[in-house]
Write a sequence for this structure.
């Protein structure tokens, strides 16, 4: 069978036996693929920086039907993204993004490759004190690409328009912001300020947002975590997310 040749980004990598590595690749053509890179640890020459997290390049994948683990023939790196490994904020944000893409259940989503590529590039270009916003923005854009954009300007429950200047109840189970009437009737919804909706709106439109304070940033991380808990179930620990969420504050 002819190998699949496709653009790919390394989302996860770990050693396998004494000489090999297993990678989880996000590919442009065929979603997430787990591949075995035989001999990758013995010969850096053969695979080079392709074995590193977040590297991107052209992968040649030899697939066999009914196998979960495919074989990586080559991965010619076009972007090593070493800048993501030189700053802890960038690294933990990119790891959180990888975890989301690997854990979130979705069918083939055509735009997800471009969104993840752009997200890693933005995190890599972010100044050390702006990596948190880059991670938040990237995560919400991925969620949006997967079809889960929360309602912000109309009530997620009754579709009444909502004044953009007010604090609102936000319900993950309802699918976003609630009007005052639905918010009062909803239990378990969190109240978010108008400024949080401004930031979310900007991220969904592809822009940036400045989070005004550490308390606001924590609230944004919590809102994002609750989204994943709602969709993935609370029993599935998001390890990289936890490191990202806690790391920002233990380093401060
Ligand atoms: Zn309503």
């Amino acid at each position: 069978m002819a190998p699949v040749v496709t653009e790919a980004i390394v989302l996860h990598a770990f050693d396998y036996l004494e000489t090999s590595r297993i990678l989880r690749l996000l590919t442009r053509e065929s979603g997430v693929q787990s591949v075995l890179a035989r001999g990758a640890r013995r010969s850096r020459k053969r695979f080079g920086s392709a074995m590193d997290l977040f590297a991107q390049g052209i992968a040649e994948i030899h697939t066999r039907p009914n196998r979960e683990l495919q074989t990586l023939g080559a991965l010619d790196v076009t972007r090593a993204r070493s800048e993501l490994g030189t700053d802890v904020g960038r690294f933990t944000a990119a790891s959180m993004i990888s975890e989301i893409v690997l854990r979130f259940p979705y069918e083939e989503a055509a735009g997800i490759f471009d969104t993840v590529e752009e997200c890693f590039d933005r995190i890599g270009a972010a100044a050390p004190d702006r990596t948190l916003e880059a991670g938040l923005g990237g995560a919400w854009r991925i969620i949006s690409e997967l079809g889960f954009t929360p309602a912000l300007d109309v009530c997620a429950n009754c579709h009444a328009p909502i004044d953009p200047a007010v604090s609102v109840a936000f319900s993950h189970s309802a699918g976003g912001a609630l009007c005052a009437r639905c918010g009062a009737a909803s239990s378990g919804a969190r109240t978010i300020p108008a400024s949080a909706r401004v930031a979310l709106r900007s991220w969904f439109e592809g822009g940036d947002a400045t989070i005004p304070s550490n308390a606001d940033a924590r609230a944004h991380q919590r809102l994002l975590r609750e989204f994943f808990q709602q969709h993935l179930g609370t029993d599935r620990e998001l390890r990289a997310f936890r490191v990202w969420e806690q790391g920002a504050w233990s380093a401060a």
